Structures are given as structure tokens and as C-alpha cells.
Amino acid sequence: MKCPKIYIKKFGGKIKMSTQIPTARIYLGSPFYSDAERKRSVKAKELLAKNPTVANVFFPFDQSFTDPEEKNPEIGGIRSMTWRVGTYQNDLNGISLATCGVFLYDMDMIDDGSAFEIGFMRAMHKPVVLVPFTEDPNKEKQMNLMLAQGVTTIIDGNTDFEKLATYDFTHMPANPVVGYKII
Q1: 117, 135, 140, 162: which is the annotated catalytic residue?
Q2: In the record, what terms sit under GO molecular function (predicted)?
């Protein structure tokens, strides 16, 4: 856990000392298939580690479930039922224990798993920060209605990724999706 930061607030001419205590428990969701997606995840964890309002970050790929009976799981793409149940339950537990979610959303290759996790978080009335990325800066910005209306805040991953280090996860100020064609 990070050390509390002491800061001074002015209230109507009075000075009051206060302690900022990190309380946000983040579920960091992201596809993890390409090198670019894996690099973004590493960067997001670094930025969130600097954020004084963040107590911890749950990243599912750091908590991977392993089925000891599975042989060569990376070959063939068919995973055991034990692995599927364990992985699904670990992810849902991470979401359930989180106070909010941060999702690195690849707009070039939409990920159904991330969309499910966002919907699950919102169904639990937990705020979600969406950080969309694209490798094509000229690509038309468009987003599904349910995703656009479902998230609490959007932080453009291509231009404002660094804001994850300073975003106030204690109060979760809204920044609705604008500038996207909604489909």
C-alpha cells in the first residue's frame, strides 16, 4: 500500500491539514492478444501505480488460472473446462471486489470479453473508465451505443493515456463519450 500524502486545504480562509488515502480498487480490463495490447497494459499499470487515489490494481492476466491437467494449452485454442471455469470465476471475483474499472479498449479489434466485463461492472453499479485506442489516427471514431452510454468516463488512449496517473478515482468525475459516431 502506498504511503498517505499529506496536503493542505483552505476552507473559507482556514487552513486544514488532511491526509489523502488511496481507496480505489481498480479492475484493469484489456484484451491481451497483440504486442500493442500487452504494452498498453504494462503502461496502464505503471500509470495507475503513480496515482495517489489508487490502492491496488487487479489485472486478470497477472492472476491467471492454471489447470495442472492441461497439456500444451497454447496449442489448438481449446481450453479445458477446469481452466474456463477457474478463469471466469477469477475475473468475476476481481470485478466484484473492485470499486471501479479501467478498460483499455482496442477500437481496431473489438473484444467481446471486455464488453462483457464492462456490462457486468455497470450491472453492479460500478463506474467504468474507458480508454479507447486505435492504431489508425484517420479512422472514423465510432462506438456501440451500449458501450458509449455504459461507461462513466472516457479518456482517449491515443492522446490522454497519461491522465490515468492523475484521474480522481475517489470521486470518479464523469466525462461522457462525445465525438464518436454512435452505432
Answers
A1: 117
A2: transferase activity
